[in-house]
Structures are given as C-alpha cells and as structure tokens.
Amino acid sequence: MTSAPNTYDAEPIPPEARQEIDRLLQSGDLFRYTALQDAPVARLETEFAAMLGVKYALAVSSCSAALFLALKALDMPRGARVLFPAFTFAAVPSAIIHADCTPVPVEVDDTLRIDLADFEARLDDGADAVLISHMRGHTSDMDAIMALASARNIPVLEDAAHSLGTKWNGQDIGTIGKIGCFSFQSYKLINAGEGGILVTDDPEIAARAVIMSGAYEHAWKKHPGVEEHCARWQNRLPLYNMRMQNLSAAVIRPQLAHVPRRVADGRRNHDYVAARLNGSPLFSVPAALPAEARAPDSLQFLLNGFSADDARSFARAADDLGVSVQIFGLSRDNARAFWNWKFIEDMPELPRTRAMLMRACDLRLPARLTMAELDFIADAILQAGELILPQTQPRPQIAS
Known about the structure:
Blueprint: H1 16-27, H2 40-52, E1 56-60, H3 63-73, E2 81-85, H4 91-98, E3 102-106, H5 116-125, E4 129-133, H6 142-151, E5 156-159, E6 167-168, E7 171-172, E8 179-183, E9 196-200, H7 203-214, H8 227-233, H9 246-252, H10 259-278, E10 283-284, E11 292-293, E12 298-303, H11 308-320, E13 326-327, H12 351-357, E14 360-364, H13 371-388
Helix pairs in contact: 1-9, 2-9, 3-4, 3-7, 5-6, 7-8, 10-13, 11-13
C-alpha cells in the first residue's frame, strides 16, 4: 500500500554539481567577480539567456531582488503606479514598495488570472508600469495585456517565478514583457534554496540592473554586451548588492538540462490529478488557456458548495488522510491573501479576488511523484470532500 507521499522535498541535486562545488570549496572562490572569466555565475547567465533565447541575463540573490532591480532599472519616478494581480505572493507588492513605487492591485477571477476588465479600468485610472505575476504558473492573457499596455506605452514586467518552462503561443513566459524574473527557490522548477535571475533584450535596462545589483568599480566589464551602457552609469547609480554567489550557480547550472523533463513530468502529474478532481462536482481545476502550455509544479483547485466551516473541515480531513491542502483565504496570515498585506495603505476591497481566495486550494505536486502517489493524493482529496459534503443530492455552487 502506498504511504502518504512527501510533497515538500525537491529532486536530488544532479551529481554533476558536486565536482564544481568541491572545486569552489577548495579554492574558496565564491565571489562572482573574483575570476577573470568563466565564473560559475557568469556561465549560468550565458546558458540561461541561451535557453530562453534572450540577449541578457543577470543572476541575483532572489526573484524578489530581480523584481526590485527590474523596477529600478526602468528609472521610474518616485511614487510611480505599478499594476499587479491581487492574487500573488507578498514579495511582489513588497518589491514595488522597495523600489519607491506605489502598488496598485488588480482583481483576479475564478480562473486565478487577472480580470481584464478591471485591468483596463485601472490602466485608464493611471499607471506607469505593469508587473504581471503568473501566480502558481497560471498565465494571464498575455496577448490582451500586452496590447492594452502597449497602446498606452506602459512597460510590462513578468514575475515568472512559477513559470519557467511555460509557453505562450510557443514563446517562453518571462520573455514577452520588457523584463522577466525567475526564481530558484526550493519549491520552484530549479532548486538552489534561494536565488533568482532577470532577463531582458534591452541593453540599457540590463546595464542599469548590473550596476545596481552590485557590480561596483569596473566589475561590470565582466558582463559582455553591456559595457558601453554600463560605462555611462559608472558611479551614478546606487549599489544594492543583490549578487548571486558561485556556489548557487554551481547548484543551478546542471539542472538546466533537466528542465524539459521536469516540465513534461509536472504537466503529466498536474493533468492527471486535475482530471480526477474535475470528475467530482465538489471540485474544479481552472483550465489552461488555449495559448498556454503550462509547466506546473503545484495544483490549485476550487471548492464548490462549501461554506467556510465546511472548507476548514475539508482541509482537516485531507490532512488526517495524509495530504496537506492549503486554502489561501482561510490559512491564518497567508502571505498570498491580500488583506494580510498590512504594509499597503488604502488597500481596496477587491471582492472578486477575496471570494476566489476563500475557496481556492493549493496543493504541492512535485514532478518527481509516481502515479501511485498521485492516486493517493487524488483519493485522499476526493474522500475528504465526500466526508464533509456527501453527494446524495446536487448542491449549489458558491457565487463568486
């Protein structure tokens, strides 16, 4: 009998990383700018840019750091209004605030994607930039977003922390907007514990981000392709020291080759469990958009017909059966529930996002899980649902 699966551990780090890590530990050469050339961080940037087909990549300490530097690299005025989806992690509005900008949340609907009508209305209210967070890998309609923003000459940034490997009309998510930011935190497709990377085709943006990341004095000369642009900004920009160090790059680089397999496995696992849950009237999993080829490492589903008390009882029942399910809006101090972002003044009510979060469940679903483990997870969720709301008669769905 299959035991309750561990959904938190990541895949083992590829053995190819160990030799390079040992070399770095023996030499003590951990700072990215010590080597004259071919430092692990520099090689990672070259390889990551080539993988996504972009001109420039800058590896930094976290995706939050990448988002902050991306906003600063746009050189917007203090207080600039930055639109972002209200369903995201607290680090996204935090990065906006750190960049001396004003966060403007936009409603998210039951598809877990940005509400385009509210997005357009808030663009018309005044916006200086758009930061689209593809939260949990759910891609908003990038064709519509880019068209609306471009018509107003507003730059679009992508928080692709959960979306490495996702395609939109065949193009990598994170390369559609002016700047894309990715995460290497342990729960993401590539695991370095922490770390992030910024990508762009704009040399001026890349140069500003390079210097502000901490390329002091003439360290920026080790970033090929942006030397001329960096020279203009020498000593003119603050240094935030958000660099990645060589050990992190040594852990990340061997995992790049595993991205296609992890994407395929993650999609298979997600779609298998989603199909089983969608077979019950108690649950619904938002479908991918036609242009979207997802690369999921987790699964989100909505509860149908559950009161708040029912939902809490369902989460406890699933946990008793060995599967941890988090309900975004009912999990105490959840960093993805906008009403917990007390650092934002005058937070709007956002009723559509609130209603969605009160019935949206989050489930870790690593690509390494076996089919038997996937069945264990699906069986536990279905059984927990039936324990709380036995399907003896049709029940109404909660209005959103």
